[in-house]
Structures are given as structure tokens and as C-alpha cells.
Amino acid sequence: MVALLTVATAGCGIRSMDVPVDDGPAPSRATCDPPDQGGGTEVFLVCDSRVESVEREVSRAVAPRDQADRIALANVLLSELQSDPPSSERAAGFSSTVPDDLRVTGALPDEREPLLRLNWHPDDLPAFALAQIICTFAQSEVFGDDEPVTLGGPDETEQPQRQYTCTASVRHQPDKLRPGDS
Length: 182
What we know:
Strand order of the largest sheet: 3-4-5
Structural class: alpha+beta
Shape: globular
Strand content: 5-15%
């Protein structure tokens, strides 16, 4: 019985090590192929350790002409990022890390446009959430297609606003996104 127990617990031939080994993230079964939705507004979701776009039908009354329109559209897009992805997107491996209580407020009266203030400072957001917001806003009419995104927190005196660009590095390595990176 002891011999049988010894053989059974001998393992699969992999020797144990005292030193931790980091071989990167575990393989994923996510395809990251966005469901074909035939047009719409790009929003960026997390899939397999990167941020990828999916198309969503986003209702909006008009293209943003002024700061109030820009804030309204930014909040609609933010709401898309905060909602649970539909089953077809989840099946492809998409998710979101944007906090449910995040809101866009807009610039203070003496600040230049197109700054958007958030009720959280961008430095305090998870890196993947910040990458989702940067790329979604940059690829939308909020700032003008593929333009830099200027984000600030609720109080300018504590942490300054920053300008961000949706680059391949932001999309493919959002975990390396740090304040001031663009």
C-alpha cells in the first residue's frame, strides 16, 4: 500500500522548484474576433491581455458641436464601456474593466476644450480601463477621429490633466500604461 501511494504521489515528472517562474499569462481560449455587427461606433474592450475594438450601435442625437454635446456623447460611450458585453462578445473573450461609478463632467469654465474631466483622476484608474477610455474616445467624434484625448480628474490642483493617444502600445500593452504615456 505504501509503495502504491508513493508511486501515485510521484507526480507527472515535473520537478518542483524553490524559485518562482513567470512564464507569462496562461494560454487563453479567447478568439478576440469581434462579432460582425455591420457598422456602428467603435468601443474598446479587454480581450486576452490587450484592448480591441468592437462595433456598437450607439444612439446619439447629433455630432458634438460644443462642450455640452461632447460631454453627453462621452458619457454615452462610457456607459457602453461599463455595460456587460453581449453574449456574442463575451463568447469571443471580451470584457470591460471600466468602473461603474465613473462619470465624465467636462472642463471648468476657465479651461481649454476639449478637456474632459472625470470624477476619478486617470492616474487612479486601472490601466486597462484607462486604455479602453483613451481608445474609445480617440476613435469617436468626442475628440475628432483618431485625435489625442485630454483627460483630467475632478480637481486640477491635486493632479494635472494629461493628453493621451491611442497607440498600438496602449492597445497591446495597456498594463504598461503609466501617467503621461501616450
